[in-house]
Amino acid sequence: MRGDRSTRRKALACALCITTAAFAALSCSGRNAVRKSDAPAIRIGFLVKRPEELWFQNEWRYAQKCADANGFQLIKIGVPDGDKVLAAIDNLAAQGAQGFVICTPDVRLGPAILSRAATYGLKVFTVDDQFVGPDGSFIAVPYMGISSPQIGAAVANALYDEYRKRRWLPQDTAALAVTFDELNTVKERTDTAEETLKARSFPADRIFRIPEKTADLPGAFDAASIALSQHAEVKRWLVFSINDEGVLGAIRAMENRGFNADTVIGIGIGSSLGIIEFRKREITPFFAFCLINPYMHGFQTTEWLYRWVSAGIQPPMDTRTPGTIVTRDDYRVIFQNRGLQDLLLPAADGAKPQETDMGRGGS
Question: Rounded to two decimals, what is the model's pTM?
Answer without folding.
Answer: 0.76
